[in-house]
Amino acid sequence: MEMSNVGTSVPGVGPxxxxxxxxxxxxxxxxxxxxxxxxxxxxPFTRQSGQWKGKAMIxxxxxxxxxxxxxxxxxxxxHNPSSTPSESxxxxxxxxxxxxxxxxxxxx
Length: 108
Prior knowledge:
alpha+beta
């Protein structure tokens, strides 16, 4: 139960997420952060071959852990204002293709 109490002390992580992490990742106490991120499928994977450079993405890992952590981050972002990006950060959207175009006033 001590691991569960440590997990729930993190904002956004409730008892279900903590139990999912304990059940699906028994290696949590014995590995460093990078290896845990790889096991969870959260480590960025860069697609490159020779001169061709693709985009970095996350892939592989344990889907149940990745889903539980995503939902915990979503809940933390909604209910804990300190866990959301600050206003002083970059104002550009993460994906500029998806941003809405600026509207110009019509000439009459």
